[in-house]
Write a sequence for this structure.
């Protein structure tokens, strides 16, 4: 990947400040959806080696995609997209770039990019890459998600979590990039199946 230009770096830094992302990602309830997750998504984007013309939009989308995160709410991505729009407008970003970042942030609600959506596929795969991590790391992730939903009764959580996990197994492919399918698909399916078994066994 190319090095970001000085102008791109300034824009990214200014947008992070304008969006108040530091305080947002350090909220007490964020056991998983925190700054470490943002850093991991950025690293996974780099690993996926997207074309240079998408790099700035992807970096911004990675930073803003969980700007708003309230467990159990269904409009987090839309609200995060609004934060991105407002912050990028404040710092004078190009309207075309703003529109692309907003689109990418909203796409993380379903992780279902079109077949020709290169940037969307990269962001989706980077955000879901944790599913294809080592079993130990996956278990830490699953525990962190449970902590974010700690107010949800155990039976309700088990049922809801298992339903969400099955939607991934039902897909022809969880990951959309060739790299993601090659490196993360198999481990992800194994991790998800194991978690579903644990959820069902503890009922």
């Amino acid at each position: 990947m190319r090095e970001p230009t000085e102008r791109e770096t300034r824009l990214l830094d200014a947008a992070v400040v304008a969006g108040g992302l530091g305080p947002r990602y350090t909220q007490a309830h964020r056991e998983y959806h925190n700054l470490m997750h943002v850093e991991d998504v950025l690293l996974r984007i780099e690993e996926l080696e997207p074309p240079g013309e998408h790099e700035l939009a992807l970096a911004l989308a990675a930073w803003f995609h969980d700007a708003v995160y309230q467990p159990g709410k269904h409009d987090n991505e839309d609200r995060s997209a609004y934060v991105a729009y407002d912050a990028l407008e404040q710092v004078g970003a190009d309207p075309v770039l703003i529109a692309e970042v907003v689109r990418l942030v909203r796409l993380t609600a379903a992780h279902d990019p079109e077949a020709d959506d290169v940037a969307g596929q990269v962001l989706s795969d980077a955000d879901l890459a944790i599913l294809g991590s080592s079993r130990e790391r996956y278990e830490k992730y699953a525990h962190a998600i449970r902590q974010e939903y700690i107010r949800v009764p155990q039976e309700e959580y088990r049922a809801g979590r298992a339903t969400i996990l099955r939607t991934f197994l039902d897909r022809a492919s969880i990951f959309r990039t060739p790299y993601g399918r090659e490196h993360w698909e198999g481990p992800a399916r194994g991790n998800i199946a194991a978690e579903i078994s644990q959820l069902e066994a503890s009922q």
